[in-house]
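Retry 2 of 3 after timeout on previous attempt. Resubmitting structure tokens to design endpoint.
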């Protein structure tokens, strides 16, 4: 199931990505709406990180193309915030938590301006949103993995972007996979190719879960149980 979106914020057209001539994503074609919390679901090795890195221009596609806000990435890069997987970051660099989050404001400062009171306030507000205010002066290398991840999410928030791309943002954070899924509004289901993309209430069915995970649901067993009971609406009062 693929839902087409008028005036999409992100378009991926016939995207194929290969490593050593071996396709890891092929013929992915989707469009995404603005103003939605969107998740990519799929098993390990399904190409979730590859898709995000391709959108960010970190991995060149073998074929196909991507548009963001109906423009190429290089024309809108300052409007996008990217949070990589925690494992891909060297956490030994000497910087305080506040310093790291203030870095998120650099894109809008220009080359010769230094962060001032406004930028520090933005950073402090972002740290408050992720529950890390008490760690402002702590060195980033001294934090736990989950705390480091929260700081990087705060840095993304400080960027005040129009589009946020986060690669496994809740890894190591005190949030269960099922809880994170419940917050989604739109879901992309991926397993090397696109299985489905659309509103959560239309896409998250047991049939599509099994097509995505090949019958090996593992962490998603609870989700399919809830679907079976027709009790899967996180917005219910």
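Retry 2 succeeded. Sequence:
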């Amino acid at each position: 199931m693929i839902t087409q979106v008028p005036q999409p914020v992100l378009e991926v057209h016939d995207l194929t990505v290969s490593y050593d001539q071996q396709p890891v994503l092929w013929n992915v074609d989707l469009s995404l709406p603005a103003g939605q919390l969107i998740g990519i679901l799929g098993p390990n090795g399904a190409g979730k990180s590859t898709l995000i890195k391709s959108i960010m221009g970190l991995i060149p596609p073998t074929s196909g193309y991507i548009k963001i806000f109906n423009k190429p990435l290089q024309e809108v890069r300052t409007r996008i915030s990217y949070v990589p997987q925690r494992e891909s970051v060297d956490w030994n660099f000497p910087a305080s938590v506040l310093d790291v989050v203030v870095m998120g404001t650099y894109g809008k400062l220009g080359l010769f301006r230094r962060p001032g009171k406004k930028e520090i306030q933005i950073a402090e507000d972002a740290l408050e949103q992720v529950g890390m205010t008490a760690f402002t002066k702590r060195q980033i290398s001294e934090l736990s993995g989950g705390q480091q991840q929260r700081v990087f999410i705060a840095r993304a928030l400080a960027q005040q972007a129009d589009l946020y791309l986060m690669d496994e943002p809740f890894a190591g954070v005190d949030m269960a996979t099922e809880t994170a899924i419940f917050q989604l509004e739109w879901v992309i289901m991926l397993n090397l190719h696109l299985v489905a993309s659309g509103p959560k209430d239309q896409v998250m069915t047991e049939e599509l879960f099994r097509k995505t995970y090949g019958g090996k649901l593992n962490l998603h067993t609870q989700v399919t149980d809830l679907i079976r009971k027709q009790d899967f609406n996180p917005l219910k009062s």
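Attempt log closed. The chain has two domains: 10-79+170-228, 90-164.
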